[in-house]
Protein 1
Amino acid sequence: MAIRTGATRTGTGATEISHGARKVGRYALLIFLAFLVLFPIYATLMQALKSGPDAIDHPKSLLPINFTLDTLRSAWRIGDLGRLMLNSVLVAVVVTVGVIITSLLAAYAFAFLTFPGKGVIFVLFLATLLVPAELTVVVNQRTIDSLGWINSYQGLIVPLLATTFGTFLIRQVFLTVPKELREAAALDGVGHFRFLGEIAMPLCRPTLGALALFTFLGTWNQYLWPQAIITDDAHRTIQIGLERLKTGDIDKFNLVTAGLVIAALPIFVVLVAFQRQLVRGLTAGAVKG
Amino acid sequence: MKRLALVSVAALLAACGSGDSIITAGREPTVVTRPPPVTLAPGETLPVGETLPPADTTIAPTTTAALLDTLPDCPTDALAGATGTVELTFWHGMQGPNGAELQRQTDAYNAAQSKVRVTLIEGSYEQTIDKYLQAGQGSRPDLVQMPEYMVQTMVDSQSVVPVEACINAGDFDTGEFLPTGLGAYATQGVQWSMPFNISNPVLFYNKRMFAEAGLDPEKPPASLDELRAASQAIVESGAARYGLALDSGFDSGGGWYIEQWFAKAGEFYADNQNGRTARATQVLYNNEVGRSLLGFMQTMINDGLAVNVGDNSTSGFDNLLKLVDGAEPAAMTIATSASIGPVISILGGGQFPQITNADVGVGVMPGPDGKPGALVGGASLWVVDSGDDVRTAAAWDFITYLTSAQQQSEWSAATGYVPVRTDALTLDPLQTTLATDPRFKVPYDQLLSSPDAPTSVGPIVGPLREVRTVTAQGVAAIFGGADVASTLAAAVEQSNALIADYNSRNG
Amino acid sequence: MKRKWRDFPMAVGMLAPSAVILGVFVVYPLVRAIQLGHLRCDATGKRCREGGWGQYLDVFRSNEFQHALANTTRLALMTVPIGLALGIGLAVLADKQIRGIGFFRTVFSSTIATSVAVASLVWFVLLQPEVGVLPDLFHGIIPSLKQPGLLRDPGTALPAVALSSIWASLGFTFIVMTAALQGIPRELYESAFVDGAGGWMRFTNVTLPMLGPTILFTLVVLTTRAFQAYGEVALLTGGGPDPERPTQSVAYLIYGQNSLVKNDIGLKSTAAVLLFFVLLVLAFVQFRGLDKRVHYGN
């Protein structure tokens, strides 16, 4: 998180006492709100740390009655969560790398190359942002089927390999590069790809980081699309796989909670680690759009 | 000015509802309306001087042989001539422990011979259906398991080899198979698919609560009147908060059970003998039987004897959970027999104070007047037409394995499904299971107690899945207190519109 | 002239990967769906007949579509204002350099780690009437938590879905708002302070106007999300409870397990294209109507 440093204000009018009371009040409010926001996750975690019967008999107990990792273990085993996570990671990583490559190339063309119809083509590119997945799934399902890609990684990956969002973001950065720089490089015999790799790309590294994280999360969280084309265990992703724990046995109702904990944890860690990139990615649209 | 524009847009939107259902969208199809075929009841004779109108040539049972001849062949001997191993894919809907058992049996099949290798692709029934219907010929599996409500759509998909062709070609003996099991998947005189996992609804009840209420724990209610009396005793004695937990799910209390209750009452659920003699054109449940049945349930809820757990759509076992509810439990519920195994194994540990393994009783589904019988639920195995004789023959070979007496004995013992053939009962492990725990035999006995009548074969309706959905909405409204007659009338009207629309697109 | 075409081959090469993928998986499906939307088809989608272009109007005016659209609008009216208000409120509250604020910021942004599937399942389990935590804790105060259960009560099912969805987007809204707050020049607050503006005045006169573009962006994102609601409906209610089906969203009407149109690719396309147009109109109206009132600081 891009935490601001310094710039603390010292209240001039407030007395010591009301200042202190305000501070306590603010902390109390913050703690209360933090509790509310965290409660669903906390309760889920506690359920996951109980045995199945304990979770059914004492749902409201907010500490594990007889602490056990059995539920987590059996969720991992029964839900085949290792497999699901691996699939999700594989798909998300390949899509992320792919999106970065396709976006870099397209952004470069729009920013540095001269060709007829550039403006129109760019607008057409942007227009695809408006088309929601809820519309394209109907036909894409059939396309994937006719390609023989139902129940395959290609089916999960290929349709997501290009986004106009990424092209747009990177192009914005490229546009800040002075034209003369490219022209000078061209005179020195530097080709487009070398210019892209050695000069243009390093300039947009922060943007690429944000785009990567954003794409990774977006792909990881896909729900409708994998559900539309995946039925087999081998290719199921974590998002659509979790649901199957719900239809499991009655006494293992809290298997779902265990699955949730396992599924959310890595992403949570990633987010805490990459908060800066995330903020940049999420705000890019707001600030630059 | 701007505000005015906004207001007028809002007014326009508010006024734009047409009052029609989405399925009526698009131009009216040009439908050739056929008069319903006239058939004679057994023993009935024509009045002198009258003749039957000519039966519809494509679908009347009298033209069976002709219909089968127009369908793809099943040269079962083609497998012998195959070179190398035939790789098959099988899409199925068995999840959890049932899926694991199917995998085990398939592994055993693959290990025992080298001609055929079957790969399983698992999904829920709904997912399997969606994927199958969307698949082009090249991406269909060789075998697919489809729930019983899909028969007409599978026939209409023109993508299958009827198993009757295989039975005939291979001189396969179906003598040991339950006739009702086979009959469920036969229409227009053709055996389309092979029954594999048969289930039907049964009553789950808490024996301890029965004893506390002064009821005989070994004698569960068999009729609706007894069901009410037992509920009354349970509630009044304080043995449980509710007698019965009801649900309005489309594949349980809101849809499937209605079909079951109609069969028990000896009534057709859909016209043309449940769609067996010709394509069904309407559902019939808004009659005296349907009204009194749902009126009965509504009164049970109004009187506090039954509790409605809702449409059961998100977990699938909300009604069973009501039996272990710590605060406000129910003593009985109706659920698919496929739950017997899981429920008993779960309660086996005795972790629940309200109900243990020994407390769980299983009885027949209480029906109108206590009449016996049940319809075949569950799913069947379909041979997909790949156009390749060897694959067709290989698929049939795997079906004969899965439906063999020994495999059915193991399958039934592991899952609780009713075996599709009688000789499976005399083989272990099923024989021992039934001997040690008679609860597993209830659905089998219930199925076999069905009277030999055309009403004992369930409805085949093109959009049966959707019909159940709108029926379930009606049932939910009735459970919530809506007027029974008008609600059923509306549900029937919607169902009939669905059927007409389906028939116009798929006929 | 020659100069204009000089880069052409290189441009084609660089644009091709994106263009092919967007063409095949975005543009083609759009065109094809519009075309399919005037057909009525059999279950396998192989045999279709003309439904006429009036099919779009028929579907739009049908009971089911109008019902789903009304439900979806209600969902948006619950999630968008509350979600925005909570996001702004939390961000303003946490926009102070006090000890431990990093912890609170991490907590408030944490729900971004939950996908639609995870968030929905978290709430599904929490609200489960027989074995859920919340009914067990609070059924004394709110009996409907237990019987019939928030998600099974026609009156509370949609608010419960909205609750899950607000919670799930809170992290996103919080992060975006926090970043925008940090972009507000401190001098603006200080001069307002010197002018004697109180806390609330500073909020309405400085903070809100400066957040304008971010609020507009978040508004559009949250509205679009609400109108695309599918996963939360599928996992929390299945579009139920019957018979009112107050949580049946437009996307669930098209793709849900109880969908009446899913075995007709024609009708399914009609409804999907209509959903697309609804989203287009909404985004257009929001940008048009609000853009003028938003202050873009340079």
Protein 2
Amino acid sequence: MTLNVLLVADSDSQLLACQALTRFGDERDVCFTVNAIPREGTPASVLQALERSGPLWRFTLRQLLADRRLDGFAAIGVYLTGSKLAEFRSTYHLSREQQRRPRRPLFCGFNGVVLERFEEAIAWRLGYDLICLNGPRDQARLELLLRHTPFQGQRTVLTGLGRQRPQEPGAERPRRMVFAEQVVMPAALAERRRLVRILARLARRSPEWELLIKPRVAPHESTFHAVDTHISHTLQESLGSPPANLQLSYAPLPELLSRSKLISTVSSTALFDALDLGCRAVVMDDFGLRHDLGTPFFAGSGLLRSLARAEDLDSLAAAAADPDPAWLYWVGYHPAFSPANLLEALVQLQAHPLTPLQLSQPGYVVNAADLSTNQLRRGAEIAIQSGDLEEATRLLEMAQLQRPDNRNIGRRLAALRLRPALLRRLALLVTPRFRL
Amino acid sequence: MRLGLICDGEPGLGACRRLGRALVQEGAAVTLMSTAPPECLPTAAEEDSEDALGWLPLEPLAAATSDLVQGLDALGVFLEGNAVTAFRAAHRQASALRGQSPCLLFTGPVRPLCGDALMADLLPRLGYDLIALQGDAQRQELEWLLRSCGRSAQAHTLLGLWCLATEPIGSATTPDPVLLVLDETQVPPSPFANGMLYQRLRSIALQTPSWQVRLQPDGPLPADPADWPETSLLWHGLQDRQRPANLQLGEGDDLTLALMQASACLGIGSSWLITAMVWGKPTVVLGDFGIRTEFNGPFFFGSGCLARLADCLPLERLRERPAVNADWLAARGWAIADGPARLLRGLAELRP
């Protein structure tokens, strides 16, 4: 029987994570529908690729949660940022309860390697029926965080880092190296200029090669991190006229990787795409092992090379090694870890639904409970409507601690504190209510 | 065994003083090398062990290249960040130029850390002869770091919660119950957020006149209050012309005594919360901001002491707070009772 699964995502990287999952729909009897929440700056190429792979919806969260077709899915995968993840879980559960409609298993995951804030990210994801992790490294970290806590029963599944259909390395590939740019690694402008200069010198030393910088997003597009100075500007201001064989390319990354001998990156997940697509990989270690760059994650790969000290790209390509198999397994790039595990777990959940994890526990606070500012504000409005002004004040005070600069929270709270009651009622009528 | 301990200000200095005294009790001869003026060295109450804990006013890099360290059996380098790497490089270079073997070097985090912060702290320490970790949780994270970095081995030992004040304390009573609020000068990092938190605490003080609410800096503040950062609760307390009488501003030097007197302790991510837990004080790790990496949230996640401020009211409820999660505390290092002896054994095994 076909398993109908809905995937919900907003930013480009989350949509890419969904795209990687949909690839497995063809191999198994699964039909994926993706709902891309409308968002300014989402790269059109990503949406077009999703459209090609299956049904694509464009509902807002509010519209989606009200849509009765949600009941037609066997499971819902949510790929949003932390607070929105918590909000979706909480609102979905609440709406199902209120409407006495069936509750489908919810799962969530990560879009690629998790270089920082892993524990915080897990604290947002707790309470999902399944959390998809990349591999044993992430699983060990999650277990250490939850060990000896009431949340150690949280279910997880290892879905790996393979995102593309595997291709054999082709000997006839052109002499081309793709550099997968990341918008904040490195973040400092001086280091980004240095990065560009290193690439330019390498291109000059390798006239037979083409060196393509693949920007994370085009100048008019947006991604999870804000981009202050687009790499195209950095290239221009650092080099003036770059060598002819150093260029920017906005072609889809898989396409570029399929037609290149080599990829280089500081710490991008694109490295694993390259391995899928038979492209040799090099991790740039000219900035050293630094936590803020995410390079320690790759340190055991056996792929670290200095681009500044490389004689030329021929020598770099000749010296490019296969990644260390033990490291690949540890981080989650191994056939044992794939979305097939998720699909298997979802089938099991259909047969044996889980009791939801109880998130409210004395002595513990979980981001996923109701801690997002929006949740607190929504809770306060519900409390105002039901006349529980004390609860409304409590929730808004918490929201104000998180967002002290939000004037509407302050106005609503001031209205709640007004005496006498008539004045308070008037103030509550005129101050702006929270609406998602 | 003759040891030197290198540090450069807090929190390393306090940690090294505690470790130095503990090592002296284990029979080692220990010299503290720090530029901290003598008044920061052991207090009058600690003078018994002062005879054995030596002190040299040396800056870290001066110590790294000094002849004085060549006669030592091992050097403990309790610096942070790039200074850890620089010290080792300078010491090796100086030893090579003298044609001598470098000293045995050991190091370790000088504050309780986990996750991203621990990984960033441990990276420059890799390659030292011995890394002193606090507890089993840190040991596990070191193993993962080594695995990710492709390193096969790194000698390490468990020292316990050596960098915190955990030694038993006497009792001190006050007429009224005291809620001690640990004020970290940069947490939350915005003056506005601190102002909001101050207002909440002020309201609590007004609503609960039978309690004293004491805002206590968890580290040294500038002597002149005009220089206090706006991101501290104390700064907001100072601006408050109508501060309630039961809302007190503590001084940095009083921290230990204030903690002794406290009926309950509250903070966001201060290391001193662990001291309060160890001392059996009802402790609240403020959960209103959620589990946020920059607020040390992941470290305290499993402590069993998290609560929202609203759930602590009335303050009498603080006396019924759930106890700290003992398994969690043990894994942070509280289970290690013989850390200094383990360190000396570990160093002895590494000596050529």
